[in-house]
Amino acid sequence: MWSPSPENPLRRFFAGLAEQTFLHTLGIGDPPLLDYLTMLLSQSIQLDSLFRLRNGEGKRLEQVADMMLEAQTMPPEGRTRREVYRHIGDFTLFWTGVYPEALDRLRSVLCKDHFIDYCAQGKRSYFIASTFEDEPYREEAPVLRRLSEEFELFAYGLNRVRREWERAQPEAADQMGRRLIG
User: CA–CA distance from 144 to each of 51, 52, 57 (Å)?
Assistant: First the structure.
């Protein structure tokens, strides 16, 4: 999975937008949380990162229902199960916050996700991922717990970040939106 360094221009761009939006609009100045959201934005605009989960046969998992099934079939302990639940939280937060207009397509009647409440599942998934508090997850557990508890607030904040992004770079934002939501 692509993970941009702190010096990466894209990551710095998102860091500035997230800090400005969350601190000045919502009064949230939690550095570990803002770092997490910056990384989420930086990684999620890469389709390979957004759809990185694969099942046992190597097939890309594109629906939350399939991701949940994959997580439930894994042993209860271990990095992989935690990472799947964390990814479900990230996936649902990204779509709910950054591109909510895509939810109708993602949850169409032709998809298993038609029956999935992205907010409820995002909260649940972040909560499960936050329960892994041993090393090396101890530092990230409080961030995931807060994302679980205030999922809707952070989805709203990410939507505001998107608005600022569109205002700052309209062509790039439009191109990204077309690529992600068709």
Answer: 20, 20, 29
